[in-house]
Amino acid sequence: MLQSMTGFGNSTLQGEAIILTVNIKSINSKQFDFTLKWPSELKEVGKENEIRQLVMERLSRGKIECSVSIDKKETAEAPHINKTLIKQYYRTFREISDELGIQEDLLSIVMKMPDVIESPHYELDDTLWKQLEHTIIEACDRAVASRCEEGAALAEDFKKRIQLILDYLDEIEPLENNRIGQIKGRLYKSLADNRDQFQNFDENRLEQEIIFYLEKLDFTEEKVRLRKHCAYFLETMKEPLNGKKLGFISQEIGREINTLGSKACQAEIQQWVVKMKDELEKIKEQLANIL
C-alpha cells in the first residue's frame, strides 16, 4: 500500500490545569528531517531526543514538524506580574522621556518588556511525560492515517497513468505492420537513386547488411519488457514503504520507452512514444512524495 510523505495528525491531552496539544506536520524529504517546537511554560527536561525517536519510529522519513502547545484552563494559575521590574522599567523610561521632552504612554510600553509578565512553569514529571508520550504517539498514528489516505489517491493516479502507457503501446501495434517494409523500401530507393556513385559492390553482402540493420530496428523485446515493467510497477505498489523501489522501476520503464522511440524511425510511432514519456514524467514527479 502506498504511503505519502505528506500528512497531518494531532492529539490533545487534558490535564488538571492545562491542555497540551500535539500537532505533527509532514512533507516530503529524502531523509528524516525533524523539528520540535516546545512551549516555554514547560521546563526543559531534555526530552527532545526521546520525542525525536518516537516520531522517527512511526513516520520513518520526511520533513516533520512536531509542535507542543499549552492552553490554560480557567482553574490554572494566573500569570505573575513582576511589579518590581515594572517600576524599574518605568523610572528608566520616565527619565529618558523627560530628558528628550517626549510625551508617551510609558506604562503600555513597559508592559511589553521582557519578563514583566511571567507565565507559570509546569514540571514535566514522570506521570505527565507518560501522558504526553501517549499523546505524541496518537498524533503520529493520525499522521500515518493521513499519509495513507494521500497515498491511496496517488495509487489511483499511478494506475491510470500506467494504463495510459499500455494503451499508447497498443496504438503502436497497427503502425508496425508496414514499418519494416517502408524502411527497407526507402533504403533501396536511396540506393537506386545513387547507384551511379557505387562501383562493383557485392549485392549479397549489401542484402545481409540491410537485413542486419532492420533486425536492430525491431523493438519486439522492448515492448515485452515495457509491459513486464508496468505490471511489476503495479504489483510493487502493494508492498509497504516502496517509494524508492518504484522509482527504480520507473527508470526501467523510461529506458524501454526511450529505446522504442530511438528505433521507431516513424513519426506516427514517435508521437505515441512522446505521450508515454509525458505520463511517465508525471508518475516520477509524484513518486518523489512516496515513502
What is the CA-atom radius of gyration, in angstroms? 34 Å
User: How much helix is in the residues?
Assistant: 55-70%
Structural class: alpha+beta
Compute the number of helices.
9
Task: Give the strand order, joined by hyphens, for the main sheet.
Answer: 1-2-4-3
Average pLDDT reading = 84
Strand proportion: 5-15%
Main beta sheet: 4 strands, mixed
Show unreliable segments.
Answer: none
Distance between the termini: 10 Å
Number of strands: 6
Defining key terms:
291 residues; Ribosomal Protein S5, domain 2; alpha+beta
Explain what this protein looks like in three dimensions.
By secondary structure, the chain is α+β, with helices and mostly antiparallel strands. The protein folds into three domains: 94 residues, Ribosomal Protein S5, domain 2 (2-Layer Sandwich); 38 residues, no CATH class; 137 residues, no CATH class. It is built from nine helices and six strands. A four-stranded mixed sheet has the order 1-2-4-3. Strands 5-6 form a two-stranded antiparallel sheet. Strand 3, helix 1 and strand 4 form a beta-alpha-beta unit. Helix 4 packs antiparallel against helix 9, helix 7 packs antiparallel against helix 8 and helix 8 runs antiparallel to helix 9. The radius of gyration is 34 Å and the shape is elongated.
Produce a short descriptive summary.
Helix content is 60%, strand content 13%. It is α+β, with helices and mostly antiparallel strands.
